[in-house]
Design goal:
The chain is built from 4 helices and 7 strands; from the N terminus they run βααβββαβαββ. The chain has helices at about 15-30, 35-45, 105-120, 135-140; strands spanning about 10, 50-55, 60-70, 90-95, 125-130, 145, 160-165. Strands 1-2-3-4-5-7-6 form a 7-stranded mixed sheet, sandwiched between helices.
């Protein structure tokens, strides 16, 4: 999977998790999650975790995704315990990019990767919760609003969105 010409998406490794947490803290403001959340996601579903590497060998973004239940999105900063056997959607937990990676195509490349992962695993859609006003980006990637924004699990101003495959 490639991103911008000068950066490369790679499988996430445990050694990347400090950078992932730092990027999350810098990007997500009110929606920060503990390092334990990222440690667990990588352990539960490594195939859905990637980091974006700049040519100078810095991590400038990440993505985390995994199967889940459509009607019950994971709570913010929640430990999952396991991937449910009755998962019916592929959940895009997070794509976070530092400013240097934005507008380069890295987000679009990551979204395409997630859609491919979901299809390969037999899911008919990808679900996410848009935060920080990112719903316009997700809409441009083919995601549709799946709620009114009033009952989103992450609170007002966030949206559950879904992309059919």
């Amino acid at each position: 999977m490639t991103g911008p010409a000068s950066a490369e998406w790679r499988p996430m490794a445990a050694a990347d998790l400090a950078a992932v947490t730092a990027i999350s803290d810098a990007v997500h403001l009110r929606y920060r999650e503990s390092a334990a959340t990222y440690v667990e996601r990588l352990a539960l579903y490594p195939a859905g975790c990637r980091t974006l590497w700049a040519p100078d060998r810095r991590i400038i973004g990440y993505l985390i995704s995994h199967p889940w239940r459509r009607a019950d999105p994971p709570a913010l900063d929640a430990v999952l315990g396991a991937i449910p056997g009755d998962a019916d959607t592929y959940y895009l937990h997070d794509i976070a990019l530092l400013p240097a990676a934005r507008g380069t195509g890295a987000g679009t490349a990551a979204t395409a990767f997630v859609a491919e992962q979901a299809a390969r695993a037999g899911f008919g859609d990808v679900t996410l919760i848009a935060v920080n006003g990112a719903d316009s980006f997700w809409a441009a990637q083919g995601f549709l609003y799946a709620d009114t924004g009033e009952n989103s699990p992450y609170g007002p101003g966030t949206h559950v969105m879904r992309r059919p495959l």
